[in-house]
Amino acid sequence: MDVDRETLLLVLAVAAVAPLAADLPARVRVPTVVAEILLGIVVGPDVLGLAETDDLINVLSQFGLAFLFFLAGMEIDFDRIRGAPATLAARGWGLSLAIGLAAGGALYAADLAGAPVLVGLALTTTALGALVPIMKDAGLSDAPVGRFALAAGAAGELAPIVMLSLVLAVISGDPWRSLLLVVFALVAVAVAAVALRARPPRVTRLIQATMHSSGQLAVRLSMLLLAVFFVLAGELKLDVVLGAFTAGLIVGLVTHDESAHDFRAKLEAIGYGFLIPIFFVETGLTFDLDALFGSVGTVALVPLFMVLFLVARGTPAWLLYRGQLDSSQRTALALLSASALPLVVAITEVAHDLGRLGTKEETAMVGAAMLTLLFLPAVAIGLTRRP
Fold first, then answer.
1. Which end of the chain is more exposed for a tag (fewer CB within 10 A), N or C?
2. How crowded is the C-beta side of 206, counted as CA atoms within 13 Å?
């Protein structure tokens, strides 16, 4: 394994500096995850040249991506989003998919981007994992617009992951592999049922007894569950982030009450304090600035993709939520729903590895997704605070 200890030190230093940079006085507050990416670009090969990714950083980054979706799954509170939020979120994502596929087809016909289905799918994503801490910090989690955004974000993460697995099954030439999704779903339901009903007295006692000791049984069981579904998804040729998200859903179901606050805080400390920042910093290290600024046409794709994110994810908020939210809240929901990044990175990377999306188009789309996460949540939060 190629390991550069100095690179690891620099990546961790960037992760530590990012929250400080995000807290600097400014007209537009930079989300910490965006600060991590921007600082990663600055110290990376295309700017200062102080660091570049290696095998160790790449492995830790993959764990960080998995943990991001694991924590996003944990945040799905079915009691809060059932009813109108869930129904509207599902209908909204269906409309987003239609818009996204139409946009992907138009880009392909205009010879502006390849992989029309995968590009269209990327346009339907929402960065729920990155939005959750932003909404928490802004006090939106329990507000009506926050509940609708949580449901829309869940649809914008889970549905694209499932669709990506289906698309990859078709592209591989073995569409029967899509049936493996059914197997995966059945295993997930069975594990969730056991986790919710099984309460062995000894295990329960040990979980409580080790919560504040070196044993940490609850955390270790959660890590085991994450690893099981991460590996299971990979073995079934599904996207591994689907496994991470599903593991988070199950842990969230079991620990949804207030008594699990300390336990959740421990998992968030592992994720947001260590692994997840490495994923975002590595995204910056590998971001190809030369490809982005190599031509005027590539630069022009960035605002175009940003508009398409807004159209694909923002349109449902305006059309479907008229009876639920006023105009400023619908605008805020549209902006939050259109904030994307982690899945855009994953989907465009898959399209690029398949040889169906060029480096320039991949970089432009990831750059546009970064801008959505940089600006849109800040504007949305400002709208919700207007009298």
1. C
2. 13
